[in-house]
């Protein structure tokens, strides 16, 4: 299980990169319209969902594959819905984003707790899940916040989540190299 994670560290880094790019786009254009936000969020959720499903199908994570597949399928469905119906209202969009953030946060916490034996002291993944969960709860509590504030919060969440994912990915890479000596391609290096 741990070997799979260390060999495929780059998948988590790729997900983190997509999250950071989405967050930067949200920050660079804070006056973004709801229509554009729907399209950006749809593209991000779709890409993140596809990567999560591929990870679950290939077994490239050591965590609960069923939960990862479910989270990925939800991201794909949400991404497609956002791209197909971009005229969605701001309130509905916020509720969808809030539900997605809560579900993702809970999943990240569950995975981190399931892997605590392999990644002792790895509180960053739990923190990422807690931030996502808190963000979703805050969106449910105050859905009428200003559009620019919401864009900034979404961008902040995406950047923090992406940074944490990349941090964990490179830690997995170091651990994999230290324990088994994996090359750049993720293939075991023969002595």
Unreliable segments of 5+ consecutive residues: none
Radius of gyration: 17 Å
What summary fits the major beta sheet? Answer: none
Structural class: mainly alpha
Order of helices and strands: HHHHHHH
Oligomer kind: single chain
Helix content: over 70%
State the distance separating the first and last CA atoms: 23 Å
Number of strands: 0
The overall pLDDT average reads 81
Strand content: under 5%
Backbone shape? elongated
Q: Number of helical segments?
A: 7
Give the count of structural domains. Answer: 1
Features:
single chain, 191 residues, mainly alpha, elongated
What does this entry show, briefly?
The protein is mainly alpha-helical and 191 residues long. The chain has seven helices and no strands.
Describe the structure.
This protein is mostly helical and 191 residues long. It has one domain. Helices cover 78% and strands 0% of the residues. The protein is built from 7 helices and no strands. It has helices spanning 2-7, 9-28, 34-58, 65-84, 90-114, 123-141, 147-180. Helix 2 packs antiparallel against helix 3, helix 5 runs antiparallel to helix 6 and helix 6 runs antiparallel to helix 7. The radius of gyration is 17 Å and the shape is elongated.
